[in-house]
Amino acid sequence: QLQACGGGLLQAGDSLTLSCVASGRTLNNWIVGWFRQAPGKEREFVTHITWNLGTPSYSNSVKGRFTISRDRAKNTVYLQMNNLKPEDSAIYYCAARSTAASQYNNWGQGTLVTVSS
Prior knowledge:
This protein has 117 residues and is mainly β. The protein is built from no helices and eleven strands.
């Protein structure tokens, strides 16, 4: 089970950290990702991190502004978002899949991030 939290209402240029806590299973050999969905738009990939090695990957839209990290002891993945823009406003979801899977099959509930200009 994945539990995402940390959303809020911010202004452009602000920073925010989202958390995704995994419970009920080990994340060894899994990949944990963040996705977002803005109103009227399709869900899009934001970033992911491999649990074992901590290797990140980012979409071009957030590269250089967002940082994903994980705390293995807390079974938690963080999404540090800096220099937020109004276009970052969306519901953010964390999700997980095994490294052998092609699709994410474990999803947490979303957390809303709203950035005003």
